[in-house]
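Hi support team,

I submitted a single chain yesterday and got back a structure, but I'm not sure I'm reading the token output correctly. Could someone confirm the output below corresponds to the sequence I sent? I've pasted both exactly as they appear in my results page.

Thanks,
R.
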Amino acid sequence: MRSMGDAQTSREHAPSLWAGRWLVAAGLYNLLWGAVVILAPGLFFEVAGMEPPLYPQIWQCVGMIVGVYGIGYLIASRDHVRHWPIVLVGLLGKILGPIGFAGALYRGDLPLAFGWTILTNDLVWWVPFGMMLWDAAKRPGALPATSPIPLREALARATDATGRSLLDLSSEDPTVVVLLRHSGCTFCRETLASVAERRETIESRGMRLALVTMSSPQKNADLAERYSLSGATWISDPERHLYRALELERGSFTQLFGPEVWWRGFLATLRGHQVGRLDGDGFQMPGSFVLENGRVTRAHRPRHAGERVDWDGLGCAVGSVIPISADSAAAR
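Hi R., thanks for writing in. Yes, this is the structure output for that exact sequence:
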């Protein structure tokens, strides 16, 4: 027999019926619109009083792309929280489409009559798609609605491939612990590259380096090899016990999708840190800490998902002060 807590958790994580209906409607609309464009590429131009396209095959390719989006929406309709990247990509397309049309209208490349497609293809979907992303951002994730476990217990549970816990490691040496976003995030990859650059400085100060992810041990091993961090301690925390014990929340809409995040993501991408497959909770915020004897002596909880690690504040930047001890931290 299921407990009341289980029932409550089930309701909290159940996909919203309204979101599924909107995504089904969007999927069917896209499939229909794409089919019309493919089968009758000149129809919309005739309705708008325009000359038919010189190369209808290009317009038919647009129809195929729109149809593929429709398939994605139908897949996402089963669980918009789990498939939030599909919703996000769809919303971005529906925002960029009207911007492109406005530019073409200003230049005189397209008549105003052609804009009715923008209304049905894009504008009408802004509110429901935005609500889906906001709803996904507020969900507590695929975890029971329980209180975080005590920090020392979480540190004792957090073990590396050899079975040693973060509690034991931090009792031997000050330990820099970096908790990462999901491994497909461009900011996660940027942080790993930054950790690799500062590893020598960290270890030269007699400090250990530990990296915590929501990925599997095998995925961690792949990341360690890719970023030359095989000698560091890697912890797999898919249930996010350590994240929650260190008070790292799931990000708000602004923390995950705000203007500053987009700008930082653009810069990180230019540096070669591409976006990968979602692996873990896409809304989990990162954080960095210095642990001594199972206690936090320094902490950096970023304001948004794209904020870089504060290496100077952690005492890990060139020229920065060596981290304070647990005793002096308690006296502050």
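A quick pointer for reading it: Strands lie at 175-179, 208-213, 233-236, 287-292, 295-300. Let us know if anything else looks off.

Best,
Support desk
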